[in-house]
Amino acid sequence: MEIYLDYAATTPVDKDALEAAAPFFSDVFFNPSSAHVGGQRAAKAMENARAQCAAAIGAENNEIVFTSGGTEAINLAMSGIKSGSRVVVSAIEHDSVTGCAERLKSRGVEVVTVVPNRDGIITPEALEKDMTDGTALVCVMTVNNQTGAIQPVKELAEVAHRFGALFFTDAVQAVSCVDISVKNSCADMLAVSGHKFYAPKGVGFLYVKKGVAIKPEIVGGGQEKGLRAGTQNVPAIVAMGRAIEDAVNNRNENTKKIKEAENAFLKCLDFGRPVLVSDKAAGLISVVFDGIKGGRLAVALSMAGVYCSVGSACAAGSDTVPPALVAMCVENADHAVRFSFGKYTTAEQAAQAAKIVNNVVKNLKPNI
Ligand code: PLP
């Protein structure tokens, strides 16, 4: 028996998305940059997907740059910062953002870290304290990948703009659970990854508001208006277009189901301290099991058939302690595991998983 509670790491590809993509692997295999009729058929499907992605976030079609996923979209967003300038990055970001920030530092950019409150939220007041005129960029994610904390991106973007900075948000964990319309948030850039909402891995996009200048990371051909060279992954892009439409249209219904599953899990859990935040996306929670290292518990749970994560999937296998929990000063943050629920998790499965967790914890810590 396997119970998958790791939807924040990745999701299975939806049947509809798979079916939409299928012809573009075979019959319509053409290069979307080719001028012939075949190429134009592939290009038309890709542009349709661009329109679906744009509509999902309230953007214009020409503001969407397809990438190989969230990490590349993030790299692209942070690529144009010149040495000598200043950026403010939150302390709860994914490795892909902190990695880019480290690289910027090594190139002579001043990087300032803004920390969350105990509730896991980067408040506009905290950001304001770290701002100066001449700050080039502010990076704060939309939904945290460890706690599910929903950040006040609209208010944070307002602060950034008041100081003349651009505002970039990593919305990779947000698409399935919150409205990420850029019309509401006024974000200047926003990163999305397909495999977090039932599209394939290795595809995503960066929204770049009209007029915002970024520097390509990958150069070569003129694809994506010269912002991202390389032949586009048409089948994956078509699947992502379909999946993002479904994610947005069915968000409320899915969220209700996911909340039920998460509640059933927490209700049946006898041990552990869930890391609670004031405004949380459904279906993503870290739980601290004092006295048991997260890595050890996750392995034991995997052997018992419950799949979960320690830290982000990208940091799995390392001894990295989830940065968001550290930044929130969560005690024993290295004793936390993350459970994440998706639209296919039933409340029964979730309750069953909690019972397995109870047994595994009891075995690892008999005197609990
Ligand atoms: N940002 C967040 C918040 C994530 O959770 C992830 C993946 O786990 C990424 C970025 C990276 O996305 P990708 O796996 O598409 O490179």
In short:
Helix content is 37%, strand content 14%. The protein is of the alpha/beta class. The longest helix is centred in the first third of the chain and has 20 residues.
Description:
The chain is α/β, with parallel strands linked by helices. It is 37% helix and 14% strand. The protein contains 12 helices and 12 strands. It has helices at 15-21, 37-56, 70-77, 95-106, 124-130, 153-162, 182-185, 234-249, 251-268, 294-303, 323-327, 347-364, and strands at 3-4, 64-67, 86-90, 110-114, 135-139, 166-170, 189-193, 204-208, 273-274, 284-288, 306-307, 336-340. The strands form 3 sheets. Strands 2-8-7-6-5-3-4 form a 7-stranded mixed β-sheet, with helices on both faces. A 3-stranded antiparallel β-sheet has the order 9-10-12. Helix 6 (153-162) links the parallel strand 5 and strand 6. Helix 1 runs antiparallel to helix 8 (234-249) and helix 2 runs parallel beside helix 8 (234-249). The model has no long low-confidence stretch (mean pLDDT 96). The structure holds pyridoxal-5'-phosphate. The site of pyridoxal-5'-phosphate has 16 residues, from helix 3.
